[in-house]
C-alpha cells in the first residue's frame, strides 16, 4: 500500500502530510485532516489546523464524533456536494482520533471507503510509534494546559482503551487536566491480563510521585514473572522503604486467566469492583488488606473469583462512589449501579466517560474535588478453535 510505505518513511512530525500527499495524489482527495481526541474525551482537535478546517469538533454531536464513538466510518455530505469521510484512527482498541478525508462525490467516497479505513488504521499505529520522537500529537490532545501532576500521570498510563478477542477495556480519569494520584495500568500476554486500579493519596506532584513509584515497582515485579500477591509485597516494600509509612497507595490488583475466566485479586485499599451480569449489578467484595507501603513487609494474599462470558466489570475509586450531592447525600453503590445499568449498551471504551458525565450532574459542579477514575472491562471469553 502506497500510504503505508509513505507513512513508514515519513518523519514523525509529517505523518499527516504524508497521508495527505498519497490520498490527494492516488485517490483524488480534496482535503485530509487528522483530529485527535483530547484528554477529557470532549473534543476532537486538529493535529494540523488550517484555514478551511475547524480547530476542534465536539466528540458528542458532530459527524466526526459519531465515527469516533461508533468506531465505524461515517460519510457526511457537504453543502457544496463534496463528501467528508470520517474514519476512526484506532490502534489495537486504543481510540486516538478521526481521519477526515474530503472526496469530490458520494460515489467516489463509497468506492474507496474500505481502503481509506485501512489507511486510517495504519496511521494510528504510526502515531503510537511517532509519539516516542515528537510531541506534535500529544500537544494536539490538549484542550488546556496540563498541571505538572497530570502530565506525570498521563505519561504513566498504558492508553485509554484496548481490545482483543477475549476482552475490551476502557478507562478515564477526571479532572483530566488536573489529576493527582489516581491511576490505572494493564498488560496482557497470550493467556493473562493484569490490571492495577490505584486510588492515589495526597495532591499535586507529591501524589503523582507516589503513584509513579508504586506503578513502576509493580511493573518491575510483573516483568520478572512474579505472581500477583508477591507483586503487591514487593511494591509495598518499595513504597515503605522510600516513605517509611508516611504515604501509601490504595490499590486493587487483578490477574485474569484468559483461557478460563479465573480472576485473582489483591484488594489493598479502596477501589471497588461491580459486576454486571444478565442486567443485574452486584458489588464484588474481596477481603480488605492493607494499602501498599503502610507497614513494613506486609504479606498479601490473592483471592479468587470466576467471570463468565458476557460479564462486565466496573472498577471505581472513591472519587466516584464517595462524591456528595449539593444536599450532602453520597453517590454510593445504588446510584453507581444505576449508572452501570444505564450504560449497559455502550461499548467498554464509552462507559467510563458516560458514568463520569452522570457523576458530574449528580455533584452539581463541573470539576470534582477529588480524582475520579472509572475502568470498564468486558469479558467475552476465549473463542473456541473451529472444528474441522
TrEMBL record:
Q: Which domain of life is it from?
A: Bacteria
> Is Iron-sulfur one of the keywords?
no
A GO MF label: phosphatase activity
Q: Which residues form the PPM-type phosphatase domain?
A: 162-379
Name any one Pfam family assigned in the record.
Answer: SpoIIE
Q: Is-annotated flag, keyword Hydrolase?
A: yes
- Name the UniProt key words of this record, in alphabetical order: Hydrolase
Write down the PANTHER family for this protein, in alphabetical order.
STAGE II SPORULATION PROTEIN E, STAGE II SPORULATION PROTEIN E-RELATED
Protein name, UniProt field? Phosphatase
Origin species: Streptomyces ruber
